[in-house]
Request: fold
Amino acid sequence: MKTISRRGLLKMGAALAASHAAVRSAGAAQRSTTRQDGGALDPASRSPVNPAHHILLRGGTIITMDPALGDFASADVHIQGKHIVEVGRTLKAPSSAEVIDATGTILIPGFVDCHRHSWSAQFRRIIPDGLIANYMSTTHQGFAPYYRPRDMYVGNLMTALGCIDAGITCVIDNSHNSRSSAHSDAAVEALFDSGIRGVHASGPPQFGTWDNQWPGDLARLKKKYFTSDDQLVTLRAFANPNRENWAFARSLGLKIHADGISSEQVEAFAKENLLGPDFTFNHASSLTDAAWRLVRETGCNVDVCTRSDAQYGLGNGASAGVGGFQKALDFGVQPGFSIDNETSYSSDMFGEMRAAFFVQRALATNRRANKDPNAPAPVTVRQVLQCATVNGAKCAALLGTCGTITPGKEADIVMIRADEMNVYPLNNAVGTVVQGADVRNVDTVIIGGAIRKRRGALVGVNVPRFRQLVDESRSYLFGKMNYTLDIVS
Reply:
């Protein structure tokens, strides 16, 4: 059956009504009171979603990523408040519903970026040819020690709005430059203000002096910002392998994210029962087969960074073909995708999907050509889209909330135009999303029932004031480093 039953609809309506007060309370809890956006954001557009408001997306091609529902060449999505109510053909909605014509578009679950160092967005593409040493000297050893809380806010806001613009509805913010509690607060509040679904993974700076407030600050952050389970932004610990820090995070009920873990650490931590489904780690491009078996057996989550590993020369440099992505598939681990940072390449999931698709297929073909009896099958576009949506939601511990277009889940939906010059005519919906579309085709983005992008433009964002905010922060940091910008270098 493609829609919820009438009894199910009644139950959902009762649940929505009963949670009305809770929704408003949670929404209020995640509003920044410091107004650090400098007038770049319209406060009215950041108001909590009205549980009684209906949206009907009419006549789109729907890729639900839910195998029980399947896909639709042409159908509707009915949203009430934050939640998806029905998916099906010729749906009815109240006369007061906001009807959005989805004809000529593809509806997909929002992309999930499983690992982004959001604070450094001021330096987009500053080192397009950079290796890991260039990245470290530019960010951690370069600009990072000069960051004010204001700069943390600006970097996180840039990342979050850039994600929304590109159809990324959820981002795991691997935050490792909070040099004080005020820096952490600014990073969190930027996520709240942006309207993104965010997982703020709080961690320590990697270089220079700081207040050494972490990991103790996790408890303060949880009490100040994360007292409700019903809000778009959630908290976890960004803690590279360390027994004491992991124990402390878990004592607070927090899940753990790590930026690197060796095969030896996987084996040691597995023996101590320290690995499990509450742990997600990035890259995973150099693990042994023995370590991969433990990852599978302990239920750990993994996200791979195809472009980052190739760009910066990490691991074996080919995570999609012989490292993280392929090994995850070989061992039955379903990985998410992550963009890592923006200092070298684009920040959209379209680029990440294509890099993973082509690198894996190229190396799979090479193995077959060299008579490898264990050469893998080439990945499909649907597998890649699953990594960018469903698997990402699992890495974020949010698969029950988002990741598929399923009645009962919150409405994190992206509408991609399929009638524009670069994608028309539409011959294969999943193929168009993975292989043909780009950011310009992202028409509408809905996060938790709130429309954050409409007709190709971000909602409630004053772009000239946003640019002023970014320019001031970047100029300040350039000045502190005595850095002279040469945009044609």
